[in-house]
Design brief:
By secondary structure, the protein is mostly beta strands. The chain has a single domain, classed as Galactose-binding domain-like (Jelly Rolls, Sandwich). Helices cover 0% and strands 65% of the residues. It has a five-stranded antiparallel β-sheet, with no helix packed on it.
Length: 92
């Protein structure tokens, strides 16, 4: 999934929410955030119903993509992403 900001922005934080209808759902243990500048952040996710936050070095980008999600080794075949938030500011 790619979030396109429409112009250059400076970002330094992300929030990820997993669907958490446990025990029906599984969850993702890891995800990669790839940015339009070519940089990447690999984040470790927990089996949690709350928004999980990840801080990283400021970078100027036009989009961010979440990819390479790794499923937990459990019985449920249903991991899901509920929300991706990216924090920063528009550049003039």
């Amino acid at each position: 999934m790619r979030v396109l900001f429409g112009k250059e922005v400076e970002v330094d934080r992300a929030g990820i929410a997993l669907r958490a209808d446990y025990p029906h759902d599984s969850y993702w243990t890891q995800a990669t955030l790839e940015f339009s500048d070519g940089s990447r952040e690999v984040v470790s996710l927990e089996k949690d119903k709350d928004l999980q936050f990840f801080d990283f070095k400021k970078r100027t980008v036009e989009w961010v993509e979440i990819k390479e999600l790794i499923k937990a080794e459990d019985e449920s075949p249903f991991p899901a992403l509920t929300q991706l938030e990216v924090y920063g500011r528009y550049l003039k």
